[in-house]
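Saturday, quiet lab. Running sequence design on the structure tokens for the scaffold JK sent over.
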């Protein structure tokens, strides 16, 4: 009897296991079917989106006139001030500074995603085209068979060309471009310009290259429009920022800027693409270009002799910054300074210069450490007006102040707040008075001096253009009743 029960139990278990196995197989098949259907829907979505766009290219063109460029802000006019000898030993008083406005630049959104997952295409023989962007060698898959020529700029020709581009033949090229964006941590602006370099390497300076760049940019998820004038094609990009000194086209209430073009009127295809995203001019990550070191310059603090550093920067990064357009967010000109100040310092400086600087600050309290950094920025650099050097206002990224022979108040405040956050881990803000930019530091120790209170935190004024002035002193003749605060990332 006992043996019979055991056999029955074994049989029941085997039956159950077979039943579970059958159910598992059933669910696995359902899941695989679901995956195939989802993949087919993705593929179908991209095909339909490109087919519909090609239809619009064949008919959705209108004549547009460029609108006047937003003029750059006037150059700052407040000259630097040297702390008078009789004021050097005076006690520093704590005076609260009333706040007129607090500027909070929005957080940059994640970069656009491709229109849909772009599939790796099988290839018979792999061929690559090499090109250089900001001194960095790049390659994408592109063969002689991928070269195409346009018979003109008419609607039908462009629609047929877009259909050809979208048939999967150029997917591997786009995959390589997106891989370069990730590998080099390219900002949106860098990625757009890299695509233009890439297309030029593949097809030369031609309408075909413009269309190829526009296609790759669109398929990467960015909002763009195609324009034409006098048998030439142009790529127009939308931006979340208002760009200075660059005429633009208003298309359905959004600003589109022509790239490498100053044509004041053109025909533009106003067709949109699903889920397209406007370009951001934030540089949230280090741009990882190949390194081409500039000639080193020695920068020395007048007060602290040990604050003497030999500094070189990556010329390829400087070249990139030279292409960078000045802009604002939400039409608030003060947001542009936050864009520069929040850009991370390049890797070569953080790996070589920062350890040396930290050694000079080692063991010091916060006040003494910040005073050493402050005096270095105040006295190691030569002040000059942007109008005289550049012919108009130009803010510097931190590395540019380390590279160029001159800088002004905004450049010094951007560099100083970058150094204090990186070297000492202290929060900073920029402080804007009429025609002058300074900064303030949030100490965790009790520090005397002019200060601002934000969210129950006390920020003490530090002015890199008040030469020789220690932490806590506001430059004379500044109207504290009109001080505006620009928040920075920690």
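Result came back. Writing it out in full:
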């Amino acid at each position: 009897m006992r043996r019979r029960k055991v056999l029955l139990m074994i049989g029941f278990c085997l039956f159950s296991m077979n039943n579970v196995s059958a159910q598992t197989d059933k669910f696995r098949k359902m899941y695989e079917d679901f995956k195939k259907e989802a993949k087919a829907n993705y593929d179908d979505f991209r095909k339909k989106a490109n087919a519909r766009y090609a239809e619009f290219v064949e008919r959705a063109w209108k004549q547009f006139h460029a609108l006047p460029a937003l003029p750059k802000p006037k150059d700052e006019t407040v000259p630097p001030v040297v702390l008078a000898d009789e004021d050097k030993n005076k006690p520093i008083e704590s005076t609260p500074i009333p706040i007129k406005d607090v500027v909070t630049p929005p957080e940059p959104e994640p970069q656009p995603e491709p229109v849909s997952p772009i599939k790796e295409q099988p290839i018979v023989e792999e061929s690559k085209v090499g090109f250089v962007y900001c001194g960095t060698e790049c390659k994408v898959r592109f063969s002689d068979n991928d070269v195409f020529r346009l018979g003109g700029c008419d609607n039908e020709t462009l629609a047929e060309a877009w259909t050809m581009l979208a048939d999967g033949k150029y997917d591997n090229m786009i995959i390589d471009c997106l891989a370069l964006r990730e590998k080099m941590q390219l900002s949106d602006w860098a990625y757009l310009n890299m695509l233009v370099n890439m297309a030029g390497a593949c097809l030369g300076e031609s309408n075909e290259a413009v269309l190829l760049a526009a296609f790759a940019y669109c398929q990467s998820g960015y909002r763009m429009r195609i324009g034409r004038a006098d048998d030439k094609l142009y790529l127009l990009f939308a931006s979340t920022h208002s760009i200075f000194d660059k005429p633009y086209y208003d298309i359905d209430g959004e600003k589109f800027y022509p790239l490498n073009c100053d044509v004041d009127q053109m025909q533009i295809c106003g067709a949109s693409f699903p889920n397209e995203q406007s370009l951001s001019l934030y540089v949230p990550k280090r741009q990882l270009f190949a390194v081409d070191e500039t000639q080193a310059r020695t920068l020395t603090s007048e007060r602290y002799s040990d604050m003497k550093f030999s500094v070189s920067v990556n010329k390829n990064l400087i070249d990139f910054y030279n292409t960078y357009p000045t802009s604002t967010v939400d039409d608030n000109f003060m947001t542009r300074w936050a864009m520069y100040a929040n850009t991370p310092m390049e890797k070569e400086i953080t790996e070589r210069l920062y350890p040396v600087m930290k050694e000079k600050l080692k063991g010091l309290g916060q006040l003494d450490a910040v005073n050493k950094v402050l005096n270095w920025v105040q006295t190691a650099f030569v002040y000059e007006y942007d109008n005289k050097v550049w012919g108009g206002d130009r803010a510097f990224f931190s590395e540019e102040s380390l590279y160029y022979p001159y800088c002004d108040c905004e450049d010094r405040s951007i560099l100083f707040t970058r150094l204090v956050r990186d070297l000492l881990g202290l929060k900073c803000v920029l402080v804007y008075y009429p025609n002058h930019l300074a900064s303030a530091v949030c100490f965790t120790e009790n520090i005397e001096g002019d200060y601002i209170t934000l969210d129950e935190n006390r920020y003490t004024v530090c002015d890199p253009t008040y030469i020789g002035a220690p932490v806590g002193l506001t430059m004379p003749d500044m109207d504290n009743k009109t001080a505006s605060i620009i928040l920075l990332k920690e």
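Notes for JK: The first strand starts at residue 61 and ends at 65. The mean pLDDT is 90. Ask whether to fix the surface positions before the next round.
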